[in-house]
Design brief:
Elements: E1 2-7, E2 12-19, E3 22-30, H1 35-49, E4 59-63, H2 69-86, E5 90-93, H3 95-99, E6 108-116, E7 119-126, E8 129-138, H4 139-147, E9 155-158, E10 168-169, H5 176-183, H6 202-207
Parallel strand pairs: 1-4, 4-5, 6-9, 9-10
Antiparallel strand pairs: 1-2, 2-3, 6-7, 7-8
Helix pairs in contact: 1-2
């Protein structure tokens, strides 16, 4: 089975192609304001580099948030459009889980995305298992919740941003366990997939929605 992975949620634009759980190619580029113009050409470039056509794709895995509202929306829209045109299933995965997917020295990993106004998107994982669900929360409140469960010395904090009072590592990306886990499930019809922003957009907040 050929799986196409798409992630446009946060710091990196990531496109990967897998044959079953074997990584055929994984491409990282810095994200920017021209994401809508860059994503499809990067997918085409990735497929061409391994001599495959987009029609060879049997399955799509997309990171559907949290992160940049625009980035999340573009990635999910492209993934849904491709899944519809190819008639293939689609799976969603948390951006926070993607950030935690690498091999770290501690049992617990806490990914953090700066959500501004002293808040974060955060979670806690252990071997890709959820300990604290993805949440939008004041940073200090998340730290206090973590402290009720485990010592901070037993945790690796991962982020592309810096935070006061804690040391963070740049996320290490290893998508193999994520791809393997999604292959074990049937996936979702493309029209049922939605972005997971975790918070209201600024326009919704102003409207009191």
């Amino acid at each position: 089975m050929i799986t196409l992975f798409i992630d446009t949620c946060h710091h990196n634009l990531i496109v990967g192609v897998y044959k079953d759980t074997e990584e055929l190619i994984l491409m990282h580029e810095d994200n920017d304001n021209h994401l809508s113009e860059r994503l499809l050409p990067l997918i085409e470039k990735a497929m061409n580099s391994i001599n495959l056509d987009i029609n060879n794709v049997d399955n799509i895995v997309v990171a559907n948030g949290p992160g940049s509202f625009t980035g999340v929306r573009i990635g999910v829209t492209v993934a849904k459009t491709l899944a519809y045109s190819l008639g293939c299933p689609i799976h969603t995965v948390s951006e926070l889980l993607v950030m935690s997917s690498g091999n770290y020295t501690t049992k617990y990993v806490v990914p953090l995305i700066d959500a501004r106004r002293d808040a974060v998107y955060g979670a806690m994982y252990s071997n890709n298992e959820v300990i604290i669900n993805d949440t939008y929360i004041p940073f200090n409140d998340l730290l206090n919740e973590i402290k009720t469960k485990i010592s901070l010395d037993d945790i690796t904090f991962v982020s592309y941003e810096d935070f006061e009072d804690i040391k963070v590592e740049i996320p290490k990306i290893d998508l193999t366990p994520i791809i393997k886990n999604n292959l074990a499930s049937e996936g979702t019809l493309c029209h049922l997939v939605n972005p997971n922003y975790l918070k209201k957009t600024e326009a919704e907040e102003k409207l009191g929605a």
